[in-house]
Amino acid sequence: MDHSYEEIRKAAIEILAGREEEHYTNNQYNHFRENIAKVLRKWQDDRITDNNEPFSFSKQDDLYVQEVFWDLFRQGIITLGSKHSPGQGYPWFRLSSYGKKVLDDEDPYFFHDLSSYENIILAAIPDIDELTLFYLKEAMQTFMVGCYLSSSVMLGVALEYSLNNLYQVIEGNADYKDHFSKVSEEKTLLRRYNKFKNKLKEIQRVLPSEIKEDLDTNLDMIVSLIRNYRNESGHPSGKVLNREQCYVNLQLFIPCCKKIYELKEFFSQVT
User: Fold this and answer.
1) CB under 8 Å to 156, separation ≥6 — which residues?
2) What is the rounded CA–CA span in Å between residue 222 and residue 128?
3) Residue 216, SS3?
4) Residue 187 CB coordination number (10 Å)
5) What is the DSSP string of 100-160?
């Protein structure tokens, strides 16, 4: 039976994180492959107790194991060389210091499946609205099955919806609605956001310190996310992202959306 890329990646992550038992010393590719096979077999039928019974990968499984291995290498989770001989090359490998930090949950925006992505979102933005969360989960689900254009569209919808909610909150604020009145006159998502960003910078001195922290960085990230979704004229960009860029965008959305919610809270309370 073939397994999906995500199933194999999840098994690999659980092994590297020490949450699943290593049946072989996990320091070279073939051992890693066999450990993944054992974990997949265990998950497939937890009634099997003889862990020495042979387990065979399909040809597609083997291809996915290779992809997962090199994806983890490119992402810096693993590095080549053993603990005792760092100068060795492939097939020897080890968990990198960055990878250990990530798998110990010290990287707040690392995820490997839908549930971990949702948990990270809710931890960062506890009051996120249900519709935005729905769009984000759709973005993650389509990412998992390799539909990267669909994932970027769903992420863009979530971003557009969140920004429109922010603008509506500001329109209801007697102190600032006139200052931001020109924002609604812009016809496209990107132009509207750029107008908002410029107007926000004009009053940046009155913003609380926690909002000003990393504000410029997150504003620039939001512009980048919009450009992946819409072009300057407001039409869908049609830009097809690769897996790595799509994964990065799913990560970047979280701190951007958190900043949007911080701004919503500020403008809903200011009198």
Assistant:
1) 225, 226, 228, 229, 230
2) 17
3) helix
4) 9
5) HHHHTT-STT--SSHHHHHHHHHHH-TT--HHHHHHHHHHHHHHHTT-HHHHHHHHHHHHH
- The sign one gets for the Cα dihedral 91, 96, 101, 107 is negative
Pick from 77, 57, 53: nearest CA to 8: 57
Calpha distance 17→99 (Å, rounded): 9
CA-CA distance, 225 to 246, in Å (whole number)? Answer: 10
Mean pLDDT by 10 residues, the chain (271 residues): 79 88 88 92 66 69 91 84 80 88 64 79 93 94 84 90 94 93 90 93 92 87 82 71 81 90 89 57
> Phi and psi for 52 in degrees, rounded to 5?
-95, -5
Phi, psi of 95 (to 5 degrees): -70, 130
- Helix (H, G, I), strand (E, B), or coil: what is residue 207? coil
Token digits of residue 151: 């994932």
